[in-house]
Amino acid sequence: MTPENDVIADHDELVVSRVTVDGSTAQCPRTKATLRLILLEEDQRRQLHDSLLQGAESQYKDFLGTKKKDVAAAAKHLTNFANWLDTREGKPFTAIVDGANVAYYMQNFDQGKFNFHQLEFMVDALEKMNEHPLVILPNKYLRKHFHANTGSSNYKQTLNRREQAIIDKLTKGGKLYRCPPMCLDDYYWMLASVSDQTVSRNGIDLDVPPGNEEGRWPGTRPMLITNDQMRDHRLLDLMEARLFRRWYSCHIVNYNFTAFVDNECIDREIGFSTADFFSREIQGNPTPGYGTDTGSGTAWHFPISDWDADERLCIRIPSSKQNVHK
């Protein structure tokens, strides 16, 4: 077993150590190098965008079966959504909510239902954290009557007055997007993560740095609020696995709370497992200098599969030792 060493190294010291990266600053204790969040590059974002359009069209075709309708309609609807995100005015969205996932969360009991109060609870919690949420919902759940599937049963649910009021409030506030009939909502909240939101963002970087004054957790924006593990998504076949993992680790935020029974909840606390704000993949970063020294070489950090999430194998060959062998 490699022993852990978190003592700061001398600027000309060869480092081969097991370290624990600071979870709040992303800094290595041995070298003081700061690990980066490695995001999708522009061409990779475009690849994800195109893969989603392709997947949406394929899913729509399978849904229709032998019905003679325009199988390209799903891609058109998704493109319309992308255009809406890019051209809408107002505050840019910093949190995209998988509405069906949240509303069905922990509802597999006798009185379970598609719970709109859980959606309202999630939106309120995000807004208290200075996030601007957008809820994505399939069209069927916005009808007066719809079939709900809580896992334990499949029954016809009828919207009551309080539930309709939640829908109206989200709609009026511009916080709800209705997916067209027969279109898979997952593609919509996934696409939202790589949208430029050109007009509303107006060139502003939405990502949140560590130690920000607002107390928001650091990382990529928009984040995606869902507990969907996406193990069965066709996108996995349409995109390189490494790039999919990079996208997933940067954007996905899991959550937990006590299930609501209708509009009641005994513990109104919500927990989040935040997305990464430094990447859990091999990376090299410059180390800061000491005094008049301009730097001490590049520190490489390697994640090891059976170590803790923030532990890395750190290797640094100081610049002075590299120059000796030139």
What does this entry look like structurally?
This protein is of the alpha/beta class and 326 residues long. It is 31% helix and 18% strand. The chain is built from ten helices and twelve strands. It has a six-stranded mixed beta sheet with strand order 6-3-2-7-8-9, sandwiched between helices. Strands 1-12-11-10 form a four-stranded antiparallel beta sheet, with no helix packed on it. Strand 4 and strand 5 form a beta hairpin. Helix 1 packs antiparallel against helix 2 and helix 2 runs parallel beside helix 6. The radius of gyration is 23 Å and the shape is globular. It starts with 14 loop residues before the first strand and ends with a helix.
Biggest beta-sheet profile: 6 strands, mixed
Strand content: 15-25%
Task: List how many beta strands DSSP finds.
Answer: 12
Number of helices: 10
Shape: globular
How far apart, in Å, are the first and last alpha carbons? 34 Å
Oligomer kind: single chain
Mean pLDDT: 86
Low-pLDDT stretches are: none
Helix content: 25-40%
Order of helices and strands: EHHEHHEEEHEHHEHHEEEEEH
Structure class: alpha/beta
Which strands sit side by side, in order, in the main sheet? 6-3-2-7-8-9
Specify Rg, calculated over alpha carbons.
Answer: 23 Å
